[in-house]
Amino acid sequence: MLEIKDLHVSVDGKKILKGLNLKVETGKVHAIMGPNGSGKSTLSYVLAGRDGYEVTGGSIVYNGEDLLKMKTEERAAKGIFLAMQYPVEIPGVTTMMFLKSALNAQKRARGEPELDAMGMLKLVRAKAKDLQVSEEMLKRALNVGFSGGEKKRLEILQMSLFEPKMAILDETDSGLDIDALKLVAEGVNTLRAPDRSMLVITHYQRLLDFIVPDRVHVLAGGQIVKEGGKELALELEEKGYADVVKVPA
Ligand SMILES: Nc1ncnc2c1ncn2[C@@H]1O[C@H](COP(=O)(O)OP(=O)(O)OP(=O)(O)O)[C@@H](O)[C@H]1O
């Protein structure tokens, strides 16, 4: 369970989150929708512990612990995973090498035995097939020259390897054609579990037809301004934000 209370965050001196409150329940899928620039990516970065995001007020409690006191790698080891809106390219590091070192770093931090090259290859191959991530992609430098859809599929592959407890998907649907969207949604749905929460950030109802959320929250002007069930996403799609919520100044 994740509980965010009155969260205030600034980036480069600019106030972005302005008193955000949000509860994400264990085992549930929560969707966050909101206009451009409302602070959705900022929220995902703050949860993952990215540098440069200054928390000036409020609290985030994750399974009874103060998340804001944890370093980024500690958060990952405790099961927080962020599928980024713009996955980073790392020239010189093959995708396979990256997956192995990231997974083993988490295993080390949890005191679990690490996987050797063979074990890793077997695991990745099995999961990659379902997400149509080719062997050739696994040999290439991480995300370098990958299409938008390939990058997003790789993010979901990472998620299925890391088996996080709290997965944050930041606009994982952007740049996906309809077949890739279904593939990614299927990948996400197979990871739904009673001990795993998901925070799905999206602009479009379309994704939520495939990944049906338990709760929908609207983020506008740095605050959660409306909450509801999955029907709220339909209402937003139909009427637009301006007619459904009042955006704080
Ligand atoms: N480094 C920065 N310096 C100044 N302003 C920033 C910085 N990073 C983000 N912002 C601003 O913070 C606001 C929120 O950005 P954020 O990316 O969180 O929005 P978002 O809701 O994810 O938007 P979108 O839907 O367009 O992806 C935007 O107005 C953005 O320009």
UniProtKB/TrEMBL annotation:
Give the signal sequence positions: none
The ABC transporter domain, residue ranges: 2-246
Entry keyword set: ATP-binding, Nucleotide-binding
Q: Does the keyword Lyase apply?
A: no
Gene3D superfamilies referenced in this protein's UniProt entry, alphabetically: P-loop containing nucleotide triphosphate hydrolases (3.40.50.300)
InterPro entries reported in the protein's UniProt record: AAA+_ATPase (IPR003593), ABC_transporter-like_ATP-bd (IPR003439), ABC_transporter-like_CS (IPR017871), FeS-cluster_ATPase_SufC (IPR010230), P-loop_NTPase (IPR027417)
Q: Does the keyword Nucleus apply?
A: no
What family does the entry list?
A: Belongs to the ABC transporter superfamily. Ycf16 family.
PANTHER family for the chain: ABC TRANSPORTER I FAMILY MEMBER 6, CHLOROPLASTIC (PTHR43204:SF1)
Record protein name field: Fe-S cluster assembly ATPase SufC
UniProt source species: Rhizomicrobium electricum
**Gene label:** sufC
